[in-house]
Every structure is written in structure tokens, then in C-alpha cells.
Write the C-alpha cells for this entry.
Amino acid sequence: MTYNGSVLAYMGDSVLSTQVREYLILNGLTRPEELLSASNFFVSAIFQAKFMTVLLEENCLDEKELSIYRRGFNYKNRSIAKNADLKSYRMATGLEALWGYWFLNKMTERLKQMWDKYKTFTEEKYGTIYLREK
């Protein structure tokens, strides 16, 4: 089945948010305010757009994946980005569409590969998200 960019992004947002939350908890964050603050940062449109820029610059995506990314990027969403410029918001939607595509198509190895790259990007650019002792 072919899904539109919005459906893929909806699923991808959920999957990526779950991965980030699990990572934060397993790395010692347990206070609700810490979890909320850290998870909001790492799944923000600005942060996702920065990561997507790296994927595009490094040619990490094949033609099918680029097509999925563009499907998410070009989806005409009625909502307005609250904390990001329009381009960043659309890039983040494209990234979430990819995450949703990989998840819905059971591409677990590719999803794991990109999650590992996301974590590495996070740690290289912003330091570890391990913030306190377990």
C-alpha cells in the first residue's frame, strides 16, 4: 500500500519519539521535566532538519528513499510550524516520512542504521544525552 507523506510522517514521528524516549531513559534520565525537555529538543523540527541536511549532504539515501523524503517534504500540511521556519518544518516532515516508511515496510535494519546515525549525530554535535548517573 502507498501512503501519503502525512501518514508516513505521522508514523515516523511516533517511532522516532519512542526511540529517543527509550534512549533517554536507558541513559539515566528519570525525572519527567528532564525527559520532556530533552526529548522535545531531539525530536524538534530544527534538530530533525539539521540531521536531514547531513543525510542529504552525505548522499545517504537511495532514489526510493529520496522519493519518500520528497513526499513528506512536499506534503501540503494545513498546520503552521510553531518553533521552526517553514523549510525546517518541511525537512523534518520529510525525515519523519522516511522513518515511517522504514517502520511500516519492516525495514528494521535500515531503521536501526539510521537510528544509530541519529544518535552519533546527536553526540557529535551536542554531546551525549547521557545527563546523569543511572
In short: The radius of gyration is 15 Å. The helical segments are 5-26, 32-42, 45-57, 63-73, 86-104, 108-126. The CA atoms of residues 65 and 98 lie 7 Å apart. Residues 5-126 form a domain with the Ribonuclease iii, N-terminal Endonuclease Domain; Chain A fold (CATH 1.10.1520.10).
